[in-house]
Specification:
Layout: H1 2-15, H2 19-24, E1 27-28, E2 34-38, H3 44-49, E3 67-73, E4 84-89, E5 96-102, E6 107-112, H4 114-119, E7 121-122, E8 126-130, H5 137-140, E9 143-151, H6 157-160, E10 163-166, H7 167-202, H8 205-224, H9 227-231, H10 237-262, H11 272-293, H12 300-307, H13 310-325, H14 331-352, H15 362-406, H16 417-430, E11 435-441, H17 444-451, H18 453-468, E12 473-476, E13 481-486, H19 499-516, E14 526-532, H20 539-555, E15 560-562, E16 577-578
Helix pairs in contact: 1-7, 1-15, 7-8, 7-15, 8-10, 8-15, 10-11, 11-12, 11-13, 12-14, 13-14, 14-15, 17-18, 18-19
Length: about 575
């Protein structure tokens, strides 16, 4: 929210800049100018001599020749006193000459190399070249016409956007406007680092596409605004031209993939996704085509380029409404972020295709809309990450719950056979338990037959609750059979025999069943077989040994804990520990 507040404050500051005043005094020339094409040897004297060949019709932007001449009347009445300069789009230009034709036939000329054109840059990617004689009020009043020659122009905007403006006004605006664009670039780049930091850990693909969008937005703003000449003075106009066109095309392509990945799964129909992606990458292929197929001026370059964005705008509008109808929450961020851009882009495309002149100052709105989009989508990315994290945590909780259900005995609420086998396997590496004991309820079938299964189930629940209260791992592995993985006392030896402790546990069980199941009049006793757990021993082998000793305990009269093989020690009847 702080970032958004700073952006809005910056927007208010920029609106206070005297751009509107400078624009109000600008004189647009697209309607008044006429064009004429010559070879590289064409000069001002020859052009004036053939001025009747200038094309002033609607086809004036279609010409043949390597040097384009523009002629227009010097209508500078609304421009403040001082030097008047000619401004225009500097994309793809090289050298320029400007000539003033006075009322008495005098010609005043100024020639500018490509480096001088670069150094004359104005914010928003224009050049600003002084008109000879306009600095002198006396001479200025005598200027009748102005002739401008452009060597090897690349796009029609070099002449369609020509304007007369006050040099002093734009000299004064250069610093604050440059600062504004620098702040916009700085604000736009911050979410890039946020994405880069979290992408390394989270690996959500939409964060990568958003980072590409941010990089494209920042480079486009940095280049098209003219800041590139401030930071990198040696940059030529062709480099700027290529950056402007390519970064915007790549940014649009990335935005299509971002939209596809950012919206929740299933909220964009499968048939719509390829249409969205194809329309998004279309400007990239068109950009590659126009730069490969054209070596010089082509009035259609700009038209083809801007027209390639039109299908994507319509597809995006449809996709946002489509996802909204399907209940997408994430799409609200894109609606908020992209609606201003779509509005400004529609105007920019219409002007780029020369459908109408429009208001060039709306380009400033596009810059702000691009940065605002970056900020809003940064919040959207953060919100989407939070939702994905919550969904992931919910999935993990469900998995834990399912695991618990799969490993929990439904009647006694302690571990089942599966949980017991898992704990034994983990013990092979952790070595927490030293012995395995199998505990069986004596004459449990008689309890069920005499008192009913509900009473028998209650006995099982009591036994499970008491065993779970011990420090040992307990589980129910059969009908009335329970298994314990014995954890040695911290003060005792792992090799110590747990018979005594198990005898105490059985006594606790007898008392607890008697207290909690008063319907059973006679004591419910328990037989236990115990086996140690050697290293690398299999569960089957240890279980077999404990089960054999449980069998000995039952054959020896029940109600006892057996930790030795009585069948091998028949002469020692006291091998088991009897329980009264």
């Amino acid at each position: 929210m702080r970032l958004l507040a700073i952006f809005l404050a910056l927007l208010g500051f920029c609106l206070m800049l005297p751009v509107s005043g400078a624009s109000a005094s600008a004189v647009r020339l697209a309607d008044d100018l006429c064009t004429f094409g010559t070879g590289p040897e064409g000069n001002i004297s020859q052009v004036i001599a053939e001025s009747d060949k200038f094309n002033c019709t609607d086809s004036k932007f279609d010409f043949v020749g390597t040097k384009l001449w523009a002629k227009f009347p010097f209508k500078a009445d609304t421009i403040p006193p001082g030097t008047v300069e000619i401004q225009g789009d500097n994309n793809g230009l090289s050298s320029i000459s400007v000539h003033s034709l006075l009322t008495d036939g005098t010609i005043m000329s100024a020639y500018f190399t490509e480096r001088q054109v670069v150094e004359s840059w104005r914010p928003k990617g224009h050049y600003g070249l002084p008109i000879p004689g306009s600095e002198d009020p006396t001479i200025r009043s005598q200027i009748a016409s102005v002739f401008v020659s452009l060597d090897n122009p690349r796009v029609a905007s070099s002449i369609t956007l020509m304007e007369l403006k006050s040099k002093k006004t734009w000299d004064d605006l250069k610093l604050p406007l440059s600062a504004m664009f620098a702040l916009l670039c700085g604000m736009a780049i911050m979410p890039f680092f946020y994405n880069a930091f979290f992408y390394g850990a989270l690996r959500y693909s939409f964060m990568l596409w958003h980072s590409i969008m941010i990089a494209g937005t920042v480079v486009y703003t940095f280049s098209s605004s003219g800041l590139i000449f401030l930071v990198f003075p040696e940059t030529d106009l062709m480099t700027k031209f290529l950056l402007n066109y390519w970064t915007l095309a790549l940014c649009i392509a990335a935005s299509g993939f971002f939209l596809d990945r950012f919206v929740e799964p299933g909220k964009i129909a499968s048939w719509l996704r390829p249409i969205l992606l194809i329309s998004a990458v279309l400007p990239v292929f068109v950009t590659a085509y126009i730069f490969q197929s054209s070596d010089g001026y082509d009035n259609n370059i700009r038209n083809y380029y801007h027209a390639s964005f039109v299908p994507y705008l319509f597809v995006v509008l449809y996709t946002m409404g489509h996802a909204l109808r399907r209940g997408s929450k994430a799409i609200w961020f894109q609606i908020a972020a992209w609606t201003p851009i779509i509005a400004f882009s529609a105007d920019r495309i219409a002007r780029g295709m020369d459908l109408y002149l429009g208001i060039p100052e709306l380009d400033y709105g596009l810059y702000f809309a691009l940065v605002l989009e970056t900020i809003i989508l940064a919040f959207g990315v953060a919100n989407r990450i939070m939702r994905l994290r919550l969904k992931h945590e919910h999935t993990l909780r469900e998995q834990v719950e399912l695991t618990l259900l799969a490993e929990t005995d439904g009647l006694t609420a302690i571990g089942n056979r599966r949980a017991f086998e898992k704990a034994f396997k983990q013990n092979l590496t952790e070595r927490r338990y030293s012995h395995l004991a199998i505990l069986d309820i004596d004459f449990f079938k008689q309890v069920n037959d005499q008192y009913g299964h509900e009473i028998g189930d209650e006995v099982l629940r009591v036994v499970g609750r008491e065993l779970n209260a011990t420090r040992h791992f307990s589980s129910r592995i059969g009908g009335e059979e329970f298994a314990l993985l014995i954890q040695p006392d911290e003060r005792g030896s792992r090799k110590g025999n747990p018979t005594s402790e198990l005898s105490e546990i059985c006594q606790v069980l007898i008392r607890s069943v008697h207290a909690n199941v008063p319907e059973i009049k006679q004591p419910v006793t328990f037989s236990v077989g115990v086996a140690s757990i050697p290293k690398r021993a299999s569960l089957r082998a240890v279980m077999a040994k404990a089960d054999r000793r449980l069998y000995d305990a039952k054959n020896n009269g029940r109600n006892q804990v057996v930790s030795f093989d009585l069948s091998k020690l028949a002469a020692k009847p006291d091998s088991g520990a009897a329980l009264a």
